[in-house]
Amino acid sequence: MTWLVTGGAGYIGAHAVKRLHAKGTNVVVFDDLSTGLVSRVPEGVPLVVGDVKDQAAVVAAIKEHGVTGVLHFAARKSVPESMKIPVEYYRDNVGGLVSIVGAIAETGVERVVFSSTAALYGLAPEEFLVEDLVVDPISVYGETKLIGERLLRFTSKTHGFSWIALRYFNVVGADSPELRDTSVGNLIPIVFRAIDRGETVQVTGGDFPTPDGSGIRDYIHIADLADAHVVAVDHLDAVAAGSVGEVYNVGTGKGSSVLEVLGAVREVTGLPVPHEVVDRRPGDPARGVAGVDKIRRDLGWTARHDLREMVADAWAAWRA
Ligand SMILES: NC(=O)c1ccc[n+]([C@@H]2O[C@H](COP(=O)([O-])OP(=O)(O)OC[C@H]3O[C@@H](n4cnc5c(N)ncnc54)[C@H](O)[C@@H]3O)[C@@H](O)[C@H]2O)c1
Ligand SMILES: O=c1ccn([C@@H]2O[C@H](COP(=O)(O)OP(=O)(O)O[C@H]3O[C@H](CO)[C@@H](O)[C@H](O)[C@H]3O)[C@@H](O)[C@H]2O)c(=O)[nH]1
């Protein structure tokens, strides 16, 4: 079995590559290095530099390396950016997956793991977001991932491949400084940067219908998320081709508010974290917490790290 990891030089893909390589699964990284870093690819793992939208290049990589499965991470990932340059998001996120599935159809690859997102739940009001909810994304980014899941559902029937889409909740941390997320778009890195610069953290919304008024999210440690990919790969490698097509949430099932996150950062760093409450960001849901029964039941995966450990590991990687 050999897995092609698109976006394997990126933040999450590189963590999955590291684990799969360490346990002896053959992996090949395919990445255009638009946000990825060569330094994240372990020694001994081949790197093919190319754009996933180039179907001929994907087919060539599959044939050259005897690929039997694709982990498809390569995509654009910013919710606000997706509202500013929507066409680029459809082009790369939907177009990229069309090209991957086209290459699979050409070569007979039988397994796909797809990076999806909790962003596709939009403003769903449920206390726990479960996989079978009828969803209505409120961002282009979320919409591109929902389209991706549906595209896999329909094309897998025709082309006979198995697939798993993992809906990541709010990803935190890094195994090592080299693998950390270099984009500072999410809450915890924003807080760390504010500490470094002596700035005040802006809490975007203090009037949500939550116990302390700030937004609640399900933060998931990158180590747990990477393990979920290993479990998904092992599962697909073990079952008959074309027999699986499933969507799974990857979260802890526990929500933390922005103010609780700031408290955890204060506790871990021992530093003051001044903050001010400002207006909500447009389209921000009050709460986004994963229902995690399905992935536990089907794949035996469950998150192991709590918020404090996530913040501690993220801080260690940030400081190094
Ligand atoms: N980071 C998060 O919080 C989060 C949450 C939910 C879902 N996701 C999804 O997880 C995946 C990985 O995200 P990440 O945080 O590691 O992002 P990242 O930007 O660090 O990694 C993306 C990787 O894909 C590569 N890439 C992008 N477009 C490409 C293309 N057209 N062809 C080839 N390579 C290309 C980039 O160079 C990079 O190495 C994405 O699909 C993203 O949408 C991320
Ligand atoms: O300066 C800031 C930035 C964020 N927040 C709040 O912090 C929480 C987390 O925000 P952020 O880290 O931006 O994550 P989300 O908007 O929840 O989206 C993330 O999590 C989704 C999955 O749940 C992914 O799909 C997205 O790509 C990823 O950015 C939210 O309540 C925000 O309102 C602040 O209070 N201040």
Automatic annotation (TrEMBL):
The keyword NAD applies. GO terms for biological process: galactose catabolic process via UDP-galactose, Leloir pathway. Keywords: Carbohydrate metabolism, Isomerase, NAD. One of its GO terms (molecular function) is UDP-glucose 4-epimerase activity. The lineage of its organism: Bacteria, Bacillati, Actinomycetota, Actinomycetes, Micromonosporales. This is UDP-glucose 4-epimerase. It is an enzyme of class 5 (isomerase). Pfam families: Epimerase.
